[in-house]
Amino acid sequence: MTAAAMAEIREATAADTATVVALLRALAETLGEGEKFRSTEATIRRYGFGADRRLWPLLAFEGQQPVGLATYIPTFSTIRGAPGVYLQDLYVTPAARRRGLGEQLIKAVIRGAEAEWGAAYLTLLVYDQNGSARRFYRRLGCRLPDDERPAFIDGPAFTALGEGA
Predict the structure, then answer these.
(1) Torsion of CA 147, 24, 90, 154, to 10 degrees
(2) Domain of 118?
(3) Angle 115-92-42 (CA atoms, 0-180°, nearest 5)?
(4) d(CA 99, CA 49)
(5) Nearest-angstrom CA–CA distance, 75 and 119
(6) Distance between CA 5 and CA 13 in Å, rounded?
(7) What is the pLDDT at residue 5?
(8) CATH assignment at residue 50
(9) Domain count, the chain
């Protein structure tokens, strides 16, 4: 029996907040972004479960042990004319990798987003230097276009631009 078959995947609850944050921190550290990690139990509790919900977290467990996480958010494509789902985070603990759990988490994200807001497509961001992730997403049928690059503005530049007239 594979890990994916043995793992229980379910929506996280507010009681799971510490687990969600711990897995998000592990993901950030794996990506070399640990020093940039700013999510806290308070922010995940507020935006993942409260009235201001902006994030949908899923957890995977083998018995009582958390072994995976996916977080996702709604999006909309004016090109497609349809709502979609953005896979914000996908993390499987090193001991549970290469057994199908990542794919099972993505399938659960798609089912959840279809049911919650009628998502018709999935989008995600993958780091160029993360070759194993790029191969994994391609194997699932994801296109990784070379002609699109994400652009970000945050911190003081975000504030300044928002204040500009």
Answers:
(1) -20
(2) 3-163
(3) 70
(4) 29
(5) 8
(6) 22
(7) 60
(8) 3.40.630.30
(9) 1
pLDDT digits (tens, 9 = 90+) for 14-57: 999 999 999 999 999 999 999 999 999 999 999 999 888 999 99
Q: Look at residues 103, 104, 121 and name the one whose alpha carbon lies nearest to residue 113.
A: 121
Residues 6+ apart with CB under 8 A from 47: 53, 54, 55
Q: For residue 76, give the amino acid letter.
A: F
- Alpha-carbon gap, residue 28 to 59, rounded angstroms: 17
For 86-139, the pLDDT digits (tens) are 999 999 999 999 999 999 999 999 999 999 999 999 999 988 888 899 999 999
Please give the backbone phi and psi of residue 48, each rounded to the nearest 5 degrees, phi first: -100, -15
Q: Are 65 and 49 in contact (CB under 8 A)?
A: no
In this structure, the number of other CB atoms found within 10 A of the CB of residue 79 comes to 5
